[in-house]
Amino acid sequence: MESKCCYYYDLHRRSQSHRIHSDWSLHDDEYVLAYINVTYTDPVSGAVIHQGGEIGKFSTGLVASARGRLVHVRSRNGTAHHGCDGRYENDLPPAPQPWVALVRRGLCNFDVKVENAYRNNASAVLIYDYKEGELHRIHLTQRHKDTIVTVFIPKTQGEDLAHITDSGVDVLMQITPGKHFRYADNNLNKTSVLFVSVSFILLMVISLAWLLFYYVQRFRYIHARDQLTKRLVCAAKKAVCRIPVRILKTDDAQLAEGECCAVCLEPYRVSDHLRALPCRQDHN
User: SS3 for 209?
Assistant: First the structure.
C-alpha cells in the first residue's frame, strides 16, 4: 500500500526543467510542422548518426521545443506500444533527465496517451500512425493543451525509430517548431463566402424572374396575335358575305363585249357568280 502511494506521488511530481510554455497562438486553421533531429551510435560501425527533417506536425496544444532520450513505451508484457496503460514497463530515465515517449496510434484516444506520458514525466509525446496516409493534426482537449509537447509523425518514420530503440540503441531526440502553415480550405473569409453565396442566389433569382417574365410576355403576344388574326378572318368573311352576288347570263353585256375579270383576268363565262365590288368591278 505504501509503494502504491509513492508511485502516484512520483507520477504527479514534475521537474521544473520540464515545464515549457508556448509562444505560439494558433487558430483552428493553422498548424506548425515539427523538425525532429535524432542522434544515435550505430551498433555495427560505431559511427555517430545524425538525422533530421520536418517529418512531424504539432498538435493543437503546446508548440515548443523539447528534447530527451527516445523511449518506445510498452505495456502488457511488451506486447502493446500504444501508451494506453498508465504504468509503463520500460526503464524510464530518472527525473529530472528528460525523455520523449514514442507511442503508436490506436486502442485509445490521444488525450489518454498524452495524460499517461505526462504522468510518467515525459517531456514530449511522439505518436506515429498505424497506416500510411496524410499527416493529420492531433486535436487535444482543453485539459491537455498546455501540459506537454505532442507531435504526430508518419507510420514509416515512427516504425523506423521504434526499431532502433527496441534494438537497445540509445536515441537522443530534439524537437523544434518548423514552418508555420494555414490550411488552404479555410483561407476564405466567412463573410466573403456569405457575400458570394448571397450574390449568387440573388443573381439566380433575378435570372429566373427575368426568364419567367420573358416567356409570359411572349405567350401573351402570341395569344394576342392569334386573337387578332381570328378577328380579321371573321371580319373579312363577313365583309365578303355582304358583297352582292349575281349569276352571269347569256344576254349580259360582259359576255357580249368579251370582258375579263379585273381581279383574276379570266374571261367571263355563262353561269359565273359575279360579285359587284365597291369599285364597281365584277369579280367571278
Answer: helix
Q: What is the rounded distance in angstroms from the CA atom of residue 30 to the CA atom of residue 12?
A: 32
* pLDDT tens column, 66-125: 999 999 998 877 678 999 988 888 888 887 899 999 999 998 999 999 999 998 999 999
User: What are the residue ranges of helices labelled H in 120-249?
Assistant: 155-166, 190-242
Our CA dihedral for 39, 42, 45, 46, rounded to 10 degrees, sits at 60
- The residue ranges of every structural domain in the chain are 2-186, 188-242, 243-284
CATH fold of the domain at 2-186: Glucose Oxidase; domain 1 (3.50.30)
Three-state DSSP class for 210?
helix
Strand, helix or coil for residue 150: strand
Q: Give every CB contact of residue 116 below 8 A, 6+ residues apart in sequence.
A: 83, 84, 85, 86, 88
Give the phi and the psi of residue 93 in degrees, each rounded to 5.
Answer: -60, 140
- Please tell me what DSSP assigns to residue 51: E
Instruction: Say what the pTM is.
Output: 0.57
Q: How far is CA 71 from CA 44, 103, 239, 257, 271, in A?
A: 21, 9, 112, 133, 126
Q: Which residues pair with 128 in a beta bridge?
A: 104, 153
